[in-house]
Write a structure and sequence with these properties.
With about 600 residues, this protein is α/β, with parallel strands linked by helices. The protein contains 29 helices and eight strands.
Length: about 600
């Protein structure tokens, strides 16, 4: 029997099969994790190998493969009339073997395809996202309230140390998500997801919450919270604390202190703040006007309500960033409500964030800003806005390594927010990573066409790489979509086609100078045009105006001015030092 097995080359095929099977298993072991297939699926590869082995042995016993194709194996005693070609019975047998092999592959292969996917091993097990809540009232006018409930729960959870909480903006695309919770979790990079419903009936509110452990693919907690609106802050604190207890084994004393600080509120003032917040998040002048009415109403109803004062301060800061109010007016009007909010609630992280932002971009006071940045993140470690803006503060003052860590954390907490991605592109500019900066800026524009910061990133990055036409196009788009001067955009594009890059830039600078005060063209834009045109003395003249008028973008003249001829100029170095940005003054 052994001799016959050798003659029919069964042992040889078995050896080849075993080696090939081992290679297949090794390849699967390396490939499956890379393409998102769980390690458990390797079992099905082994089963396929085992089930196909007997079929391979049967085939080897009866048939040979040669240059003539598949033929019958010659018998031990060969007769003169032996014909190795296949007979009808052989065709039937080979068909049966093929069907059996295909059946094994389909049955076990489908198990691999349908095996439950696990979360990426790099995902923090103490990470969570709160998806937009469902409104059970069916009343469109309640949208502001439901949105506010989600925001409040996220704010409460964001204050818990050792818990990573996704920002609200990145959850909004999943308001009516059709994908599975696993898909959503993978896209947001979280291990747990909270869903909920909200119902307000008169002066009572009911919030039903449920939490899913995505790795286990099961609902692990559910609870309903009900109370009168006067106790809404206490209700929200209870809900956040319950969720945090489900995720973490133990909360720290600071966490308990913040939850215990929740207290009753004036219902009418609270609803006014929610309405104001709902409108301010739309980022347009008309909604800002409506938001101002609601925040002012909240303060008039309850002068001791910290969130009302914070709303007024936040609105003022947004108006300054959008050039709706002048830098001087921002310095006069934005600080008082922020300071009052912090006086009323020293544990309000957003108030520290607001004061840090005002000190940085309105006052250029780095020493005053730093403790508020640090306190905001100490109080709310998952506050994405704080990480995002703090990273720019650090870049402005020259701490690029720490700046990178914070902007990367902001992207992790708020991955679907074009504002975050746009500011990330600017941080990459600070590090002279121009190709990556362009990639991030284009990603932000893909998420929100016409998005502000991305155009300025493209302008600087393309100029640094010598891409003249791309730099002009980005500058023109910035003037169209951000600065609101489309005539200047048309002018510089025509000049570039006619006269080239440097001449067009100088013509643009002169064009903008004519009426820069009446339509508030930023001195920084005029300086940039002179810089591109090679008139570095004039560029520095306008940089000095940029700084002296306290334009909010002026702090970036250290980190984002890239041309060597300016960076080495004594007047430029003196200006940067005058701003207290010694790190950049000392760079080549």
């Amino acid at each position: 029997m052994i001799r016959e097995l050798r003659r029919r080359r069964v042992f040889r095929l078995a050896g080849i099969y075993i080696v090939a099977a081992w290679v297949a298993v090794q390849v699967a072991d390396q490939l499956f994790p890379a393409i998102g297939v769980p390690e458990e699926a390797i079992l099905y590869v082994w089963l396929i190998v085992v089930f196909l082995f007997p079929l391979a042995i049967v085939f080897s016993w009866r048939y040979d493969i040669s240059a003539d194709g598949i033929t019958r194996t010659q018998p031990a005693r060969l007769g003169d009339d032996f014909d190795p070609s296949l007979r009808k019975t052989d065709v039937v047998l080979l068909g049966a073997l093929s069907i059996m092999a295909l059946s094994v592959l389909l049955q076990l292969g489908s198990r691999i395809e349908m095996a439950p996917l696990g979360l990426d091993k790099s995902i923090n097990p103490f990470s969570i996202a709160v998806l937009p809540f469902d409104d059970l009232s069916g009343n469109p006018d309640e949208q502001f309230f439901v949105s506010g409930m989600q925001s409040s729960l996220i704010d409460g959870l964001s204050r818990v140390r050792n818990l990573r909480v996704t920002s609200k903006v990145s959850t909004l695309p999943y308001r009516q998500a059709g994908g599975s919770l696993l898909e959503i979790a993978m896209q947001l990079g979280v291990a747990r997801i909270v869903e909920g419903t909200v119902l307000r009936n008169g002066n009572r509110v009911s919030i039903a919450l449920r939490m899913h452990d995505v790795e286990k693919d099961e609902q692990v907690w559910t609870e309903r919270f009900e109370d009168v609106l006067d106790n809404i802050m206490v209700l929200q604190a209870r809900a956040a604390q319950e969720i945090a207890n489900q995720v973490l084994s133990k909360l720290g004393p600071e966490d308990h202190e913040q939850f215990a600080a929740a207290k009753q509120v004036n219902t009418e003032a609270y609803l006014a703040v929610l309405r104001g917040t709902f409108h301010i998040e739309r980022f347009n002048p008309e909604d800002m006007r409506i938001a101002a009415m609601h925040f002012q109403h909240a303060v008039e109803i309850d002068p001791e309500y910290a969130l009302g004062h914070y709303g007024l301060g936040k609105l003022c800061l947004f108006q300054a960033q959008a050039n709706i109010i002048s830098p001087q007016k921002a310095r006069e009007e934005c600080f008082p409500p922020m300071l009052r909010a912090l006086e009323l609630d020293p544990l309000l992280p957003q108030a520290h964030l607001g004061l840090a932002s005002l000190s940085t971009w309105q006052m250029f006071d780095w020493d005053a800003a730093r403790p508020h940045w640090e306190r905001a993140l100490e109080l709310s470690p998952s506050l994405a806005d704080a990480h995002m803006f703090y990273s720019h503060f650090l870049g402005i003052t020259g701490d690029l390594e720490k700046s990178t860590k914070h902007i990367e954390r902001a992207v992790e907490l708020d991955p679907h927010n074009p504002f975050v991605i746009g500011l990330y592109s600017i941080q990459l500019l600070m590090r002279d990573e121009y190709e990556k900066a362009i990639e991030a800026a284009e990603k932000a524009l893909g998420m929100a066409p016409g998005y502000a910061f991305s155009y300025f990133t493209l302008v600087t990055a393309h100029d640094a790489l010598g891409h003249e036409s791309e730099a002009i196009l980005a500058l023109a788009n910035a003037m169209r979509h951000i600065l609101g001067i489309p005539d200047a955009a048309d002018f510089v594009e025509a000049a570039y086609q006619r006269d080239g890059f440097e001449s067009a830039s100088l013509q643009l600078a002169e064009y903008l100078k004519v009426d820069w005060e009446t339509r508030h063209v930023s001195p920084g834009t005029i300086s940039l045009a002179y810089e591109f045109g090679g008139d570095y003395e004039s560029a520095i003249d306008w940089m000095e105006i940029f700084v002296d008028t306290y334009e909010p973008d002026a702090p970036y003249i250290g980190a984002l001015v890239k041309r060597t001829a300016i960076r080495e100029h004594p007047r430029y170095k003196a200006l940067v030092k005058r701003m207290g940005l010694d790190y950049w003054a000392n760079q080549p």
